[in-house]
Write a structure and sequence with these properties.
By secondary structure, the chain is α/β, with parallel strands linked by helices. It has 2 domains: 239 residues, QueA-like; 69 residues, QueA-like (Thrombin, subunit H, Beta Barrel), CATH 2.40.10.240. It is 20% helix and 27% strand. The strands form 3 sheets. A 9-stranded mixed sheet has the order 2-1-17-16-14-3-12-13-15. Strands 5-6-7-10-9-8 form a 6-stranded antiparallel beta barrel.
Amino acid sequence: MRKMKLSDFDYNLPKELVAQYPLKERDTARLLVLNRKQGTIEHRIFKNITDYLLKDDLLILNDTKVLPSRLVGSRLTGGKVEVLLLNRKANLAFNALIRPSRIKVGEKILFNSAKLYGEITARDEITFSTKDIDTIYKLGVMPLPPYIKRESQDLDNIYYQTVYAQKEGSIASPTAGLHFTEELMQKIKSLGINMAYVTLHISYSTFRPVKAENINEHKMDEEYFKINGNTTRLIEESRLRKTRIFAVGTSSCRVLETYTLRIQEGYTDLFIYPGYRFRTVDCLLTNFHLPRTTLFMLVCAFAGEKLIKKAYQEAIAKNYRFYSYGDAMLII
């Protein structure tokens, strides 16, 4: 496998194309359809996705649910503190991103007018005074990504969650799935198209900056995943019938490619970049991703760097909305 530089996965995006709010109607987002074999690009509306699905196709969606894991508190000496809860450790200790970073071990942070406090018990770790985890998350808000330049609002409790979210555990939404409505999903099923679910709890690992100039040296952190028996049965049936398997989102894609090894539950650190040979996924539905990220590298691996960059440049020229609340791309 050839060595690839981080700079190979860069592109320029006008900041005004970064979507700051969701569309009121989820399925009215734009849909760029990229045909890998023909090298063609079409521009549609997301609800038109059914035009590209065939009877007995299998759509796999990530049913993870985003936790309201961003908390704002204050120091005893005054001053705001932002805490992003990453994952729970023992009892009510959490790994966390804490800002400002100069806070010392042993310092207490007050939340909800001092009705709850957390103590910095180690670097990037906070332990809460309550015994009830629900008390903590009731004080939290949706952890919007930093390129959304506003505070989380009530609307984000609805729109930053897929309509089929079930399993709590993510700190970010599987954004390709945000475009589905319950009505559209019913229409897809009525056409004889199968839908099934996997779970991957999206962690900070997915967004951790790639710092190695030689991307082959980048190491993904582990993220928990699970595939239930019904989903594995449908995957095996699709393989036998040679019908297409669609991954809805890069997180679903990584689970399905991990399942190639017949692993149904555990932790995956699979890093997909150009040169990777896909074994399970035939088609990919995804949003537009930040440059120089593992997500952008994955779509380049799936469709080829040249074709993806062509599609991105056309999306920019046609003023598509980018990133979490942005438009979608279907790669067939």
